Amino acid sequence: MGRVQLFQIRLSHGRVVYSPGEPLAGAVHVCLGAPLPFRAIRVSCTGACRVSSKANDASWMVEEGYFNSALSLADKGSLPTGEHNFPFQFLLPATAPTSFEGPFGKIVYQVRATIDTPRFSKDHQCSCVFYILSPLNLNSIPDIEQPNVASTTKKFSYKLVKTGSVVLTASTDLRGYVVGQVLRLQADIENQSGKDTGPVVASLLQKVSYKAKRWIYDVRTIAEVEGAGVKAWRRTQWQEQILVPALPQSALPGCTLIHVDYYLQVSLKAPEASVTLPVFIGNIAVNQVPLSPQPGPGPPPGAPSSVVPSAPPQEEAEAVARHPHFTDKRHSQPLPPATFGAASGAPEPCPQGGSPASHPLPPALCISTGATVPYFADGSGGPVPTTSTSVLPPEYSLWGHPYEAPPSYEQSCGSADPGLIPGS
């Protein structure tokens, strides 16, 4: 066996999820089979956002740093055979954004340790990834408890001569939700024609905007429900429920390169008509008071990260997008929640320093879910399919929908919280 038998970072109590402004403590553990001369033992704690113009590309085009702290744990000397522990502690910035990982970029935090050996000897390095969760309080968003309403009228021709129209009005009980909460949807469809309409479909959409050399948009279908069409000259009220699955929060305060938005789109297949409602998803439910954090080194309070939408940037310049659409089910079909640990290419948590029974890990953060069709904000090219390995179940199929980019939050609701607008 080599001289260095074990070299790893152990965070206190096996924690991997922290809140902004918290201290991060741990120790560098070294196990040697023979004495090891060294020039220095160092540990650093870094946080950054990295964005690429290609899906799942390891070479980053744009990077935004949040902090970079380093400590010297030991000066020049020699470590004897046996086990050695070097404790450390860093204070995480209060402005650090929530961790995020997507096909075109990620917000990543890690601790890295290095044993700097004498000349002509091999240096030793190890690292440990951790995650930051900055809970979003939905009550901080103006008018969040008010109903969400949008309406459209579609005029069309049938049988070459006759004309008719369909009025589609959709509403939700709230503008914001938390993971596991039920989104109550109502759609009023007035068929003012002699032709039956096609089925009505409601889709919960996730839109992630990445700022590389230009904005890249990644639109995914998260969950869908479908209802029957409306007979000629009839008016129907359609009510459904969508259970909000585990998702990343849509606002990432402190990050200027990645923005996450959520929309509920209600559509008719024939005639083609749709309305779009912006939806906020956060960590603290509407009209609920956040719990005070418990003191001590245990896991931080809070559920898996949710999502909060902000206004999409430069909507007027967006290209037409296609996204996976569920076409043959009548009930809500949310995708299975994905966690960092289950994601393709996601880093493994660092080894736990302590009994899992005595120090249970908090719920893992969530990353984006669903199949991806990114598109660009400028240029004449059409949508560019992604090479991402994240795909939807086989029963999902492609459908030309939506035909235009979702409207801005200002257009839909009349006002927006400046702190949640990308680029603000």
Automatic annotation (TrEMBL):
Spell out the SMART domains in the cross-references: Arrestin_C
Q: Write out the biased-composition intervals (Pro residues).
A: 292-303
Q: What is this protein called?
A: Arrestin domain containing 1
Q: Name one GO molecular function term.
A: ubiquitin protein ligase binding
Task: Specify residue ranges for compositional bias: Basic and acidic residues.
Answer: 319-331
Domain Arrestin C-terminal-like span(s) in chain numbering: 3-137, 162-286
Provide a GO biological process annotation.
protein transport
Q: Where is this region: Disordered?
A: 291-362, 403-424
A Pfam family annotated for this chain is Arrestin_N
Q: Which PANTHER family match?
A: ARRESTIN DOMAIN CONTAINING PROTEIN, ARRESTIN DOMAIN-CONTAINING PROTEIN 1
Question: GO CC terms for this protein?
Answer: cytoplasm
Q: What is the organism lineage in this UniProt record?
A: Eukaryota, Metazoa, Chordata, Craniata, Vertebrata
User: What InterPro entries would the database entry show?
Assistant: Arrestin-like_C, Arrestin-like_N, Arrestin_C-like, Arrestin_domain-protein, Ig_E-set
The entry's family comment says: Belongs to the arrestin family.
